[in-house]
Design goal:
Number of domains: 1
Subcellular location: Cell inner membrane; Cell membrane
Structural class: mainly alpha
Distance between the termini: 34 Å
Low-confidence stretches: none
Mean pLDDT: 89
Pfam families: Na_H_antiport_1
Largest sheet: 2 strands, antiparallel
Strand content: under 5%
CATH architecture: Up-down Bundle
Radius of gyration: 21 Å
Function: Na(+)/H(+) antiporter that extrudes sodium in exchange for external protons.
CATH class: Mainly Alpha
Number of helices: 14
Strand order of the largest sheet: 1-2
Order of helices and strands: HHEEHHHHHHHHHHHH
Family: Belongs to the NhaA Na(+)/H(+) (TC 2.A.33) antiporter family.
CATH topology: Na+/H+ antiporter like fold
Keywords: Antiport, Cell membrane, Ion transport, Membrane, Sodium, Sodium transport, Transmembrane, Transmembrane helix, Transport
CATH superfamily: Na+/H+ antiporter like domain
Number of strands: 2
């Protein structure tokens, strides 16, 4: 009897689960359940003997999401060493497209929301949600050539790198360099243990790695640098075999629990009872920059990249395929939600409207990309049918 694969390791089901969780968060925030859930999310949990005293919402965004970034970093390292970005020849085209997918949304956002109260939100529309984008591609892209997926994957990975840099550089505050230095020592110990685990394979080494990883996370969280960066550092230094096993073990938990819980918490915002003209420029800047800025930036820069690709590179993608990838790139979601929380942490009103902007802009991009990908896939299926 054949055992069906775990749907949490696929691409379609986790994307649907993420969307449902965000929808429930938005729904319950605007029902009589709001006060009870808000009270739970604001409840603080402290770690005795440390400076860690976080609300439940921050334990989700700083703690659970660090596990997600650990898995992301493992994937990044694999792609940079053995995957789609392991050589300049492979990386140059998606890198140019990713540059456009960052610069144009920033420009669009600043045109709409560049005043002093909302200018700090410019990083929000630069992100692409890999899980969502690949999920939509899997749902609607039957018949598309694999190189479209490869291009999108490389593009989204580079977007993740840029998002991680933004989080690390832009949103550090009152950095305690002693704690961060100790965290670097923790990363070094984690690196050494991962090599030892690769050579010896003893379960006690894995337990020691888990302990060192948690301590490193706590040190980063106490340093003033966003705690998710701990997951990034640990994932990047882990030895390949233990890293692969860790990613395989954590993937269902990340897709089935961590990301949906984060989506619920991040989307738990009250829809303001105002007319559209009274909404913050941050809302409109994100709503336009994600679906419009991304598709223009990725498509234009991607098309230019195909024209100047180096000798020996893969064949150029047709512009229609780049356009479909650009539309998928407008689905910001997970990292954009995190950036919205960080960019407007000091102003809850603008933060909530920015989060709504991420949800609306990503939904628009999801719908547009679904149409583009479906039409393109139908064209490829028709060509294949005519040739057979």
């Amino acid at each position: 009897m054949r055992i069906s694969p775990n749907p949490l390791r696929g691409q379609q089901f986790p994307a649907v689960l993420l969307l449902v969780a965000a929808g429930l968060g938005l729904l319950f925030a605007n029902l009589p359940t709001h006060d009870a859930i808000a009270g739970l999310l604001d409840f603080h949990i402290a770690v005795p003997g440390t400076s860690l005293d976080l609300s439940v919402a921050h334990w989700v965004s700083d703690g659970l999401l660090a596990v997600f970034f650990l898995v992301v970093a493992i994937e990044l390292r694999h792609e940079l060493t053995h995957g789609e970005l392991d050589s300049p020849r492979k990386a140059v085209q998606p890198a140019i497209a990713a540059t456009g997918g960052v610069l144009v949304p920033i420009a669009v956002y600043l045109l709409i929301a560049g005043d002093s109260a909302t200018v700090s939100g410019w990083p929000i529309p630069t992100a692409t949600d890999i899980a969502f984008a690949l999920g939509v591609l899997a749902m609607f892209g039957r018949g598309l050539p694999s190189r479209v997926r490869v291009f999108l994957l490389a593009l989204a990975i580079l977007d993740d790198i840029i998002g991680i840099i933004f989080i690390a550089v832009l949103f550090a505050h009152d950095v305690q360099w002693l704690f961060f230095g100790l965290a670097i020592v923790g990363v070094a110990v984690f690196w050494a243990l991962s090599r030892l685990l690769h050579a010896k394979g003893h379960p006690l080494i894995a337990i020691a790695m888990a302990v060192v990883g948690i301590v490193t996370w706590a040190l980063v969280a106490s340093s003033g640098i966003h705690a998710t960066i701990a997951g990034v550092m640990l994932g990047l230094v882990m030895a390949p075999v233990p890293a692969g096993r860790t990613r395989h073990a954590l993937e269902p938990t990340v897709n089935g629990a961590i990301l949906p819980v984060f989506a619920f918490v991040a989307a738990f915002v009250v829809i303001p009872a105002v007319s559209p003209t009274q909404l913050s420029p941050a809302f409109w800047g994100i709503v336009v920059a994600l679906p419009v800025g991304k598709v223009i930036g990725i498509s234009l820069f991607g098309w230019l990249a195909m024209r100047i690709r180096p000798r020996g590179a893969d064949p150029a993608l047709p512009f229609a395929d780049i356009l479909a990838a650009g539309a998928l790139g407008g689905i910001g979601f997970t990292v954009s939600l995190l950036l919205a929380n960080l960019a407007f942490a000091a102003d809850a009103g603008i933060r909530d409207q920015a989060i709504l902007g991420v949800l609306v802009g990503s939904l628009i991009a999801l719908a547009v990309s679904g149409v583009f990908v479906s039409l393109r896939a139908r064209w490829y299926r028709r060509v294949a049918s005519a040739a057979s």
